[in-house]
Every structure is written in structure tokens, then in C-alpha cells.
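Title: [Solved] ABC transporter permease 3D structure

Original question kept below for reference.
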Amino acid sequence: MAALTFDSARRDPALRGRLIAIVAAFVVLWPTLVISEFKPWILLDEQSLGATGRFLADFMAPAHSAEFLDMLLRETWNTVAIATAGLTLALLGAIPATLIINEQLSVSALGTGRMRPLAHAVRQAVRWLLVVLRSVPELVWALLFVRIIGLGPTAGVLAIGLTYCGMLSKVYAEILESSDAHASDALLANGSGRLGALLYGALPEAASELMSYTVYRWECAVRGSVVMGFVGAGGLGQRMDESLKAMNGAEVASMLLVFIALVVLADQFSKIVRRRLG
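Solution (posted by the thread starter after getting help):
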């Protein structure tokens, strides 16, 4: 009797629920593995192992010729330039869009709390446009622009600009709406325009958080610009794609090392800026 009581006390009351959850997850995930034709054992066949071994062997001696390093430095700078130009383009669209969709800065809703039908319609139209912009990944935008304007960094800049415009506008509006509205409300009530209420009312309180998020997005843009290079949007990624197609492991190794260093530097820069703002 004592042993039975001891076993009952040690028994996990949530065990049955966990087992049911594991079985349910397996039942749901198994069809997706079948549909996606996920076959990791293909990596272990003789042909795949041989190709992998030859490719990885080149990684032991990264390319370091003067001509290659000059090209690598130039493409790395192009990658940073694409990310910075794309984010600048995004800001040019995100700042006015934030002014439009931010309900805290609504002049028509001042006092009554209800916006005029036209103001509400314009705000909703801009909101839906921003949803479309941020719903399409920058990689897809890059593919579209490469088809339209051809290979090169312009496609990457436009892709980052469109996607990040939608992202920045949404987050900027949420940050401003979560801040204290007393200062901006007072300015609007005394005849100030939306821009003045933003600059002198809402912005001083939310400036550090807005800047912190902007720097974080720049860091993401640096990583994204490398990925977009694989579809022909210029920068380090495009050169890496060419070296991968040529199975030149030495060049790929050098580019990966530079890419890792670039991401680490961007991350450290982002941390320093956020720490000083915080």
C-alpha cells in the first residue's frame, strides 16, 4: 500500500498530456515531411560525399591573391552601401507613412476621438499598402526588380526600400502610439500641425527606441543584401553565387569569412549605438 502511494506521488500528472501532444505533433508533421520529399540520407551516398569532400578540401586554403582581395573589399563595401541606401529609401517612405497612420497624431479625432470618414479611409488605404509592402520578402522584390531593370545593386536597394518601408512604418507607429500622448495632444489642441506635434511632442520621448529599432533594421539589411546578391542584386552575395556555381571552395571560404566578420561588426555597431541611446 505504501509502495502504491509512493508511485502515485512520483507519477507526473502531465505525462499523459505530453504523450498525446508528441503523438499529435508526429501525426501532423509526418505528412509535411512526405510532401516536402525531405530525404537527408541522400547526403550520405557515395557521389554526394565525394563532391562534399572535394568542395570542403578547398576551404582549407582560402583565396588570398591581391586581385581577389581587392574585388572582395570592393564587393563588401558595395554590400554595406546597398543596405544603407535601401534603409535610407525606406525611411523616406516610412516617416510620412507613420504620420498618416498614427492615430495619436490625428487632428480630425482631436476632442471627439472620432476621425472624419475621409481621414479614416486614407489612413486605412495607407495601412493596407504598408501591409502589402512588408508581406512580400525583400528577396522576392529583388527577383522582380532584377527581371525588370536587370542585374545590379539597384534591384537590392529598391527591394530593401519597399519591404523595410512597410516594417518601419508599422513599428514606428506602434512605438509612438505607446508613448505618452499628453505633449502631442497639447500641441495639437493649441493649433500645431501633425509634423510639429511629432517633432516636439511624441518624438523626444520615443527617440531612443525609434533609433534603436532603426539601427537594428540596418543590421538586418546588411545580412539581407548578401542574400539578395544570390538572385543578381549585386554585392558580396552575387560574387559568392558565382564562386559556388564554379565550385571554387577557396573563394567561397574567403567570402564566408568576410561575411561573418561583416555581420559581427554590424552587430557590434548596433549594440554600441543601442547602449548609448539606452
